[in-house]
Write a structure and sequence with these properties.
Layout (H helix, E strand, L loop, with lengths): L13 E13 L4 E3 L4 E2 L3 E16 L10 E4 L2 E2 L2 H18 L6 E7 L8 H16 L6 H11 L11 E5 L8 E4 L5 H4 E7 L9 H11 L3 H20 L3 H20 L10 H15 L5 E4 L5 E6 L3 H12 L7 E6 L5 E3 L1
Parallel strand pairs: 5-7
Antiparallel strand pairs: 1-4, 1-14, 2-3, 4-7, 4-8, 5-6, 8-9, 10-12, 10-13, 11-12
Helix pairs in contact: 1-2, 1-3, 2-3, 6-7, 8-9
The chain binds adenosine-5'-diphosphate and ligand DP6.
The site of ligand DP6 has 14 residues, from helix 5.
């Protein structure tokens, strides 16, 4: 039985949730409403198997007058990251009609703030655990809307496989849905080239705000975006990996161009990213299915077929061993949606 279907009503208890990171193939970058986190564009993502967050929320162990507490990978969370967690907890408390403070314990099996989607898995897991611990009975769509308020990309991590976040224009209409793909998600994988797993200098939140406010290329990226999404969805329906890869690569490179044209410029790419992007082109020329995507960080994710992912990983490792010494690689396949246990 899905534990979210029958939460304990009324009791302020403890729950643990696991949510997997997702990588957008067609990106979200820019908000129409900062408060509600309504995006300017819809987005399409693949939830991944090996990158995830497990979070426990306990509404019963602190004194009623205490403030919320959180640890991430054993370290106390404070400042802005804690405020973001408290903001989501407040939404859950308000909805459940409770006011107990929470103790949050989270473990990221994904590098934090490195452009590998820790905020997506982190806030999806927090939402699932907090909702069940607070005794709420929420549908996946409601969980997606709530997770969105913590971090936009988290709305998609409620679902496994391919997910689409409909931009919408209000809290009610901005949520993710699973994409009906007849198993296509299992046929595609990402070779993740971890070039730097340290935290980025500009957070996604600040980076997208600056891009929207100052980049002369932002509007043209948004104008192209609708076509990229249409192409990508048609490619999924037709199980056409090259068509999906071309749309994904064009969308990501356009987003990075818009970022770089911001004032002051945002450049998440480093020399290793450029070498990796060239290697992906070379892999394609050598006959591999291989298309690059990048998020708010230097790491490069390579979309490929599940069948050839291991072979492509080895090829890229060998290609980049001199120019990017110390590069780590992970082959990520389609992963599951949110799970919650008491
Ligand atoms: P990333 O590329 O890792 O998603 P972002 O800049 O988008 O980077 O988000 C990183 C922020 O997400 C962190 O600074 C923190 O506020 C939040 N975050 C990451 N992991 C967790 C977690 N497990 N629980 C709650 N918040 C998290
Ligand atoms: C480049 O979801 O982390 O990964 O909503 O401000 O928390 P906030 O931003 P976040 O941004 C993700 C941006 C991206 C593209 C994507 O995941 O669609």
């Amino acid at each position: 039985m899905d534990p979210r279907a029958a939460p304990q009503r009324g009791g302020c208890v403890k729950a643990t949730a696991t949510a997997h990171a997702n990588i957008a193939l067609i990106k979200y970058w820019g908000k129409a409403n900062e408060d509600l986190i309504i995006p300017i564009t819809s987005s399409l993502s693949l939830t991944l198997d090996d990158l995830f967050t497990t979070t426990t929320v306990d509404f019963s162990s602190l004194e009623p007058t205490a403030a919320d507490q959180a640890t991430l990978d054993g370290a106390t969370v404070s400042g802005r990251p804690l405020e973001r967690i408290c903001g989501l907890l407040d939404l859950v408390r308000e909805r459940a009609g409770i006011d107990q403070p929470a103790k949050v314990t989270s473990e990221n099996m994904v590098p934090t703030a490195a452009g590998l989607a820790s905020s997506a898995s982190g806030f999806a897991a927090l939402t699932g655990a907090a909702a069940v611990a607070a005794g709420l009975e929420l549908s996946d769509r409601e969980l997606s809307r709530l997770a969105r308020r913590g971090s936009g990309s988290a709305s998609r991590s409620i679902f496994g496989g391919l997910a689409i976040w409909h931009a919408g224009d209000s809290d009610e209409t901005s949520f993710a849905d699973p994409v009906v793909d007849h198993g296509f998600a299992q046929e595609i994988s990402l070779v993740v080239l971890v070039l730097n797993s340290g935290p980025k200098a500009v957070s996604s939140r600040d980076g997208m705000r600056r891009t929207v406010d100052t980049s002369p290329l932002y509007e043209s990226w948004v104008a192209e975006h609708a076509g990229h999404l249409r192409e990508a969805l048609a490619a999924v329906a037709d199980r056409d990996l090259p068509r999906l890869g071309e749309a994904a690569e064009a969308n990501a490179l356009g987003m990075h161009a818009a970022m770089r044209a911001a004032n002051p410029p945002i450049n998440y790419m480093n020399d290793a990213s450029c070498a990796a992007l060239q290697a992906v082109k070379d892999a394609r020329a050598a006959g591999f299915p291989a298309w690059a995507t990048m998020d708010a960080g230097p790491n490069v994710k390579v979309l490929t077929s599940t069948k050839r992912a291991a072979e492509l990983e080895a090829w890229l490792q060998s290609r980049l061993k001199d120019s990017v010494p110390g590069m780590d690689t992970v082959v990520a396949h389609a992963g599951p949606g949110l799970t919650v246990t008491r």
